[in-house]
Design brief:
- This protein is an alpha+beta fold and 271 residues long.
- It has two domains: 44-131; 138-252, Mannose-Binding Protein A, Chain A (Roll).
- It contains six helices and eight strands; from the N terminus they run H-H-E-E-H-E-H-E-E-H-E-E-E-H.
- The chain has helices at residues 2-29, 31-124, 154-163, 174-183, 204-208, 257-260, and strands at 138-140, 143-152, 167-168, 186-189, 202-203, 226-231, 234-239, 244-251.
- It has a four-stranded antiparallel sheet with strand order 1-2-8-3. Strands 4-6-7-5 form a four-stranded antiparallel sheet.
- A hairpin with a 2-residue loop joins strand 1 and strand 2 (143-152).
Amino acid sequence: MSEEVTYADLNFQDSSKRKSIQESGTVGIKAPPATSHLWHQRALALTLLCLLLLIGLGVLGSIFYITLKKEMRKMNKLQNFKEELQRNLSLQLMQNMNSSKVIRDLSFTLQEIATKLCQELYKRQPEHQCKPCPRTWIWHEDNCYLVIKNYVSWQESAMFCSAQNASLLMIKNKRVLEFVESKRFRNYWLGLSPREDYADYKTLDEIMSSSDWFIRNADDVGDRMACGYLDTPYVYYASCTNIKNTICEKLANPVKIENTLMSEIPDRKYN
């Protein structure tokens, strides 16, 4: 009896062990499905993360596109405003240029009128204050002339004119020629360049186109050099140390419009 119980116990123990082995074997086989389930969870999380990233990029792209459109509209407005300013500026510059031209033309016309009026006044009153030349000087066309009978050498005559901010008379154009012919000057030094030989006399027409007009310093004139002088209607050469009269010339100042409108002759010296 005791042996049967022992066998039964052993048999039961063996069957219990086999069942435990089977159960443990069964559990070992079911382990892989638990790992696969974890991988699916991770994949799902990554997928959701990617979707969130794509959504975020889409939102950012939309914001960027909207902002870009707004900025482009602003840029277009600024460009249009700039172009409008440039057009307005160009129109203003053109108007200013036209206005300046009108003013210049008007000033030139007024100056011409004032000059002609002053010339008429000068014919009636040689010392009228509108005269653009210093006192005692003769006004003709664009030049002022100072005629002095001082009987000095050519060098002294040239230095005297230089002290008056002028030069010896030069006959280079028709206007000066007409002035000289009308005055019939006799024995006046000219601004011809001194020369070493005595040239033949010439008429005023011939001397007008000459290239011998004074070009050297008066200090360089030697005792044996010849200088030209005026004896209307001819030009002669004589020793530069001879004594003759002086005619100085210089450009006239512009006629002052306000002086032209005044008729009184001021009791003052002209500079």
